[in-house]
């Protein structure tokens, strides 16, 4: 049987002629100066997906703190006593000490551990130690510096620009039609992983943007989902958006189930089951892809909301330095009602963990090789057009043009 990709081996390039078909330079992945350019032109003005949902902070006083390396800012998200979510710079307005520790928690307010200034859950300065010795202190003007916060289908985003160039809704672009109907609220957090990777964020992410590597990198973990008729898992659907967002659908061949798969598939939604066995899933490309497995949805530049039949996971390739990235993923399943569903979900958790580790396995060696200068460009097949699109979008945003 011929897969559609075999009938036409290069279906995607003609749809995106602006990306060209030539080699792509690797300098932007290894040059520290380029990372600074990205920080200035991309990271500082973007909507940052915090890999955090509104329901993670359900009660007034619930808060979350994260240092964003790419933006060089510590951000505090807190639900105020009025029930509203707000974001602030995590900075005391006295002399700039960091206010709250990294992580999540619950509090009535925030007291700075330097001199005891205290802020309420709406970010207002509530108490100044020995206030009478200050000169003309206007407490009402000394609240925590606000950061723009918005949510999209329950996901919390922040934007550090004084005036964001566009709304979050606009940044989500075609995902407002393609992904928005997905039933996110029916699922709960089932696990979270973080990995420190000594590689550029683009190099790290590139290993997650195509399935051309599947037969090699994932041979042991999901080799059974690759059929002899389609040995290199040729992607059937890729949708590249003008603003850099991308959607890549991965399919998984029906196969003889292993005993563990039989057990897992029988008791609930799983990661490698594919869409054929499941009901229609709104907000996915299930209907457009034969043996559909899941959609990888990249919100430019470095976070994703990936959806399958009865599960989703959110991840980010947090840029730390030109040669350092933190990969973080959090996955969500329906709340298990029975022990058998927990077993099924545990199976998915382990498969996804192993797959991610396999994807990360080549990053550091690839980065080292690129850094050596031994090769100055990469050769990309039609199957790797999402990789090409990323380099093109980043270059364009940084005022550079890639050769066609
Ligand atoms: S720096 Fe926070 S109270 Fe002084
Ligand atoms: Fe992979």
Number of domains: 2
Rounded mean pLDDT is 94
CATH topology of the largest domain: Naphthalene 1,2-dioxygenase Alpha Subunit, Chain A, domain 1
Please give the share of residues in helix.
10-25%
Question: Which strands sit side by side, in order, in the main sheet?
Answer: 2-11-10-5-4-3-6
- Relevant CATH superfamily of the largest domain: Naphthalene 1,2-dioxygenase Alpha Subunit, Chain A, domain 1
Low-confidence stretches: none
Ions, cofactors and other ligands present here are: FE2/S2 (inorganic) cluster, fe (ii) ion
Distance between the termini: 35 Å
What is the level 1 CATH name of the largest domain?
Alpha Beta
The structure class reads alpha+beta
The largest β sheet comes out as: 7 strands, antiparallel
Work out the strand percent.
25-35%
Discrete helix count: 12
Shape type: globular
Rg computed from alpha carbons, rounded to a whole number of angstroms: 23 Å
CATH architectural arrangement of the largest domain: Alpha-Beta Complex
Number of strands: 19
């Amino acid at each position: 049987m011929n897969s559609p990709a075999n009938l036409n081996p290069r279906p995607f390039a003609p749809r995106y002629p602006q990306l060209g078909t030539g080699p792509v330079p690797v300098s932007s992945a290894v040059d520290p100066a380029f990372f600074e350019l990205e920080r200035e032109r991309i990271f500082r003005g973007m909507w940052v997906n915090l890999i955090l949902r509104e329901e993670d902070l359900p009660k007034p006083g619930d808060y979350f703190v994260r240092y964003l390396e790419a933006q060089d800012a510590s951000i505090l998200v807190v639900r105020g006593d009025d029930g509203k979510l707000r974001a602030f710079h995590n900075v005391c307005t006295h002399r700039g000490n960091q206010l709250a520790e990294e992580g999540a928690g619950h509090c009535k307010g925030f007291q700075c551990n330097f001199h005891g200034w205290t802020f309420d859950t709406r970010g207002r300065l509530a108490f100044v130690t020995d206030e009478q010795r200050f000169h003309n202190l206007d407490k009402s003007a000394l609240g925590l510096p606000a950061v723009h916060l918005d949510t999209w289908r329950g996901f919390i985003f922040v934007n550090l620009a004084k005036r964001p160039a566009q709304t979050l809704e606009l940044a989500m672009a075609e995902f407002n039609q393609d992904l928005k109907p997905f039933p996110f609220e029916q699922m709960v957090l089932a696990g979270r992983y973080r990995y420190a990777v000594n590689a550029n964020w683009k190099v790290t992410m590139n290993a997650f943007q195509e399935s051309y590597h599947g037969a090699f990198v994932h041979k042991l973990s999901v080799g059974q989902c690759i059929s002899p008729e389609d040995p290199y898992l040729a992607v059937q659907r890729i949708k590249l958006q003008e603003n850099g967002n991308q959607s890549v659908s991965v399919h998984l061949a029906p196969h003889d189930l292993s005993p563990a798969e039989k057990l897992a598939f029988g008791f609930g939604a799983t990661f490698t089951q594919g869409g054929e066995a499941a009901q229609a899933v709104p907000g996915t490309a299930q209907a457009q892809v034969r043996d559909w497995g899941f959609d990888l949805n990249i919100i430019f530049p470095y976070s994703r909301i990936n959806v399958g039949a009865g599960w989703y996971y959110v991840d980010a390739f947090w840029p730390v330095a030109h040669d350092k990235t933190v990969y973080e993923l959090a996955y969500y399943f329906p709340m298990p009602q029975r022990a058998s569903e927990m077993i099924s979900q545990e199976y998915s958790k382990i498969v996804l963990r192993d797959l991610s580790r396999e994807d990360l396995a080549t990053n550091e060696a690839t980065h080292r090789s690129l850094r050596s200068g031994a090769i100055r460009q990469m050769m990309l097949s039609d199957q790797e057009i999402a990789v090409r699109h990323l380099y093109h979008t980043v270059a364009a945003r940084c005022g550079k043009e890639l050769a066609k």
